[in-house]
Amino acid sequence: MTTIEKFKKLIIITGPTCSGKTNISFNIANKFNKEIICADSLQVYKDFDIGTGKPTKKQQQIINHHLIDIVKPFSDYNAWNYMQDARQIVSESNQNTFIISGGTQLYIDAFLNGLTSGINKDDKIRNELIEKIKLKGLDTLYKTLAKIDPRSSNKVSSNDTNRIIRLLEIFYVTGEKPSEFLSKSPKEKISNTKYLKISLNISKSELDILIEKRVHQMIENGLVDEVANIISKYGNKIKPLYSIGYKELFHYLNQDSSLNDSINKIIVNTRRLAKRQLTWLRKDSEIRWCKDTNEMEELIKNFI
Q1: 28-40: buried (b, 16+ CB within 10 Å) or exposed (e) per residue?
Q2: So what's the pLDDT on residue 3?
């Protein structure tokens, strides 16, 4: 009789933007002969390649990468979709161990801990909330959420546009406080798995240097042309175009700023993003922080 492993194992390699997750994950997957499930909210989109730091075509040929280039940029893809897709890959695959690689913590958390079934999106309400952000700023919406439901606002960053919109959407659709509504629909954790969360411990000064280097490398690799091609192909209203690295160059192509100014804005905005990401990552007691890749490999070897 064939023995079936009861638990599948997940090696989650995460960290702030520009910390080398993609290459680290590739090297580890190559060494231990494992497949990679990407956890990046932008790498799911086709044609968004350079600015999202996707694995190279050669890397994808050597190691099977899941959940890259799976939707067109005008399609809606969210944490709920990711949770379902990633869990299906794990449950249906003959592989016993996967590497989960990426920095979108909402996707990783949804994958591991589940999401409440919640409500369907209401485009009318969402569009109204987005217009309010444009006119009055995100802080106005966050203060509204804090007034309506302090419990929810205390659990979300004041910079987290997507979650603030979602929580207010729940309130306006149901008439209930989001915290009360969501408590009625408990999350369902991923079953039959064990996981290891690891991240490379990089100092802020080192990360700042890596960010600047990566931004200039993306420009050299043709990011300006990539943005121009995306606009030509899909128009300028698609959601992923307003992410860091793309929105700044959109303004440049629209002649609203110089190329140097746009590049500097990408660097500044990426550093701000990395700072927010590190703040949240430090709160995650499950993460094992490693001083180098050798330590990461030793932890993975023992876990496997």
Answers
A1: bbeeeebebbbbb
A2: 44
